[in-house]
Specification:
Elements: E1 3-6, E2 9-13, H1 14-17, H2 20-33, E3 38-43, H3 49-62, E4 67-72, H4 75-84, E5 88-94, E6 103-110, H5 118-130, E7 143-145, H6 149-158, H7 165-174, E8 177-181, H8 187-197, E9 201-206, H9 225-234, E10 238-242, E11 249-252, H10 261-274, E12 283-289, H11 295-302, E13 307-310, H12 314-324, E14 326-331, E15 335-337, H13 347-361, H14 365-370, E16 376-383, H15 388-398, E17 403-405, E18 410-413, E19 417-423, E20 429-436, H16 439-450
Parallel strand pairs: 3-4, 3-5, 4-7, 8-9, 8-10, 12-13, 12-14
Antiparallel strand pairs: 1-2, 2-6, 5-6, 10-11, 14-15, 16-20, 17-18, 18-19, 19-20
Helix pairs in contact: 2-3, 2-5, 4-6, 6-8, 7-13, 10-11, 10-13
Length: 453
Amino acid sequence: MPFIRSISGIRATVSDSLPSEIVAKYASAFARFLPPGNIIIGRDGRPSGVWIERLIAETLALNGRNVTILGVVPTPTIQLLVEHTSTASGGISITASHNPSEWNGMKFMFSDGVFLDTEQNNHLWEIADASHVSFDQTTTGEISYDNEAIEKHIDTILSLPLFTETILTILKNRKLRVVVDAVNASGSVIVPKLLEGLGCTVIPLFCNESGIFPHTPEPIPQNLTQLAAAVHHEKADLGIAVDPDADRLVLIDEHGHSIGEEKTIVLAAQCVLENHKLFGKYSPDIAVNLSTSRMINDIATRYNATVWRSAVGEVNVVRMMQHHNCIFGGEGSGGVILPSCHYGRDSLVGIALILHLIATNQATLSELSRSIPSYEMIKTRIDFNGDFGALSEILRQNFQEASVNNSDGVRFDFEDSWVHVRASNTEPIVRIIAEATTKERAEYLINQTLSFF
């Protein structure tokens, strides 16, 4: 099985591609890469994360680093604490994100709580490749535990200027019933606690924190049929699904229908833009990646905001946000970034923003969803071991009437549609995404693209 090293860190199948030697090597390299300071680590709940967490902590300590272990927490919780802790020089999230249970990995973040960018990753890889595991022979760091990370994360969200006593009262009076599918991973405790803090009645579906996934963990509609059924059976107001490290958010409306992960970021953006005066130091602009739906442009136009597009990858979106001082950003896979909280994709922030939108608009989730112009988006993937540059040139010849963006793979924009073809950062595949005003047009773009593989 493959070992993947990308802008999203490292991840691999544990049994054959992620031995203890590899884990220790990258932990040791990270200790040498970072400036002085404490290193904060946490894990997404997978059973393999127990030994990986212990090994990383011990390796960092033997390199003279003080280590704070958060235990089972979302990746955005780690990011928030790194960004908000003055003594922290970086952090590690032990996770393989939405990959199946046999996978695990390490996401590396700098002192600002942001994942390493391409240049920083390349430096880290050079250190890891140039030497074996090494230890500081003069000093050993201390290992401590922070058992209040979840509360700190929730308190930070509820302290946002959006959540006045009036809004909290409205939400508590709505008495929303919410079903939660956290795939028994890092969102199992924190998501229900946040919802309860917002006055909701929580119906846990898969929230036992065992790390044993009850279904394929990527939060896309075909994997959320049990959640949809539970929302319908419980007569709930909405369903919430997060991936194992809880940085992605997908919603099910009160009728048991998935509104689609692309609408997560659109509705969250609507909430922020409606209240942009509360975020005074930021420009009323948005940054998203090249694969995000044009629905975000529609909502931005409604509020006279500009949309900036980056390469796929959280850090790429964050860098674009920072460059333009954007009030909001994210990725269409359900990743919401609110810099006034922290610079990281955060399902908890997304939940809070969308519940705020429900409260202030006195609407149901399906009503909010219908208020957004919709398009037909088709996502597919294909194994590919060939020359991507040659493939891109062939596609350019086929789509000559389109405008071309090659900042991340290749994206072709037409008057009524677009198609984006790129190598995945997290899996050995090529992803193809097409969006159009009609399903037939989106299917045509997908089939035309696939015909050249």
